[in-house]
Amino acid sequence: MKANEIKKGAAIEVDGQTILVKQLQVQSPSSRSGSTLYKVRGQNVVSRQKFERSFKGDEAVNSVDLIRRPVQLLYKDGDGVTFMDSESYEQYILSEDSIEEELKYIAEGLEGMLALITDEVILGIELPTTVVLEITECAPGMKGASASARTKPATLSTGLVVQVPEYLEVGEVIKVNTDSADYISRA
Length: 187
Fold this sequence. Notes:
mainly beta; SH3 type barrels; CATH 2.40.50.140; 5-stranded antiparallel beta sheet; 2% helix; flat
């Protein structure tokens, strides 16, 4: 596969290491003769070390076959975070460090999560595009607040902080984009 075909959530092999792609940034050339660069940020699935490298669009990259299985959160404890396969009831344990970013969006009963598995080993969790979370802390809502672009920070039930319109209040349930951590709408 070529570097311009890499997608977020894919697994690639670089220098004998399997890398789970967590972010992808496309940098257009600044001159006519330049080539588009694909900046890949991810994590080594064995050592859990962060990985970052830029590839030219036509550069060859080895892809790793991933199996995606529907899972749900069972519990968190000292060993890590335990997920259960929604169909086979098999359990997978991941360390909190390895899914630190994803945990900000995972609340009890979240539907639509997928476990990324290769060679019987769980690599990570793929979140749905949007999640619904409750506001647990924010400044009081303003009665005369217009629907203008004025926002305030709000802490959600998972600890994630997002900017929300100033008319929202504690206890309201909102929809959040998991790629950008942006407020979308009331749920």
